[in-house]
Amino acid sequence: MNNQVCIQLAMVTWASAFLLAIILIIAIPAHFCGCNVINHFTCEVQALLKLTGSNTPVRLILGLVIGIFTLPLPFIFILISYTRIVVVMLRIHSAEGRLKVFSTYRSHMTVVTIFYGTAIYMYLDSVKGVPGPG
Q1: What are the boundaries of the signal sequence (predicted)?
Q2: Which domain holds residue 113?
Q3: pLDDT at residue 40, as a whole number
Q4: 10 Å Cβ neighbour count for 66?
Q5: Does residue 58 contact residue 133 with C-beta atoms inside 8 Å?
Q6: Which of 4, 56, 70, 112 has its CA 20 to 30 A from that of 79?
Q7: Under a CB-based contact definition with an 8 Å cutoff, are residues 63 and 45 in contact?
């Protein structure tokens, strides 16, 4: 990877995070109801959405859309890249070389699956668990 590709990847990441933040600022009302304390280490989107005073469909849809763009979409890209690694791994003729690649691949996929699996479950559970209006 050269410097230009690295800079482009960083710019796309920063721009998408900025756009998601702007969407939140525009879509969420400026007032918050109740306790304005987030009991997390990070100020994540779902926790911020819970601080708003209403359970509007816009809030639920926004949470779902942001959840899709921040979790399953990158997870799919990671799975595609690891699928390509498996294809290359199967072309390696030596068993020792395949074993080295597979051991690294296995540990990486375990970490990625645990991280994204728990985060996706958390987001889907929080969207599902929000009571409707009324």
Answers
A1: none
A2: 94-125
A3: 66
A4: 20
A5: no
A6: 4
A7: yes
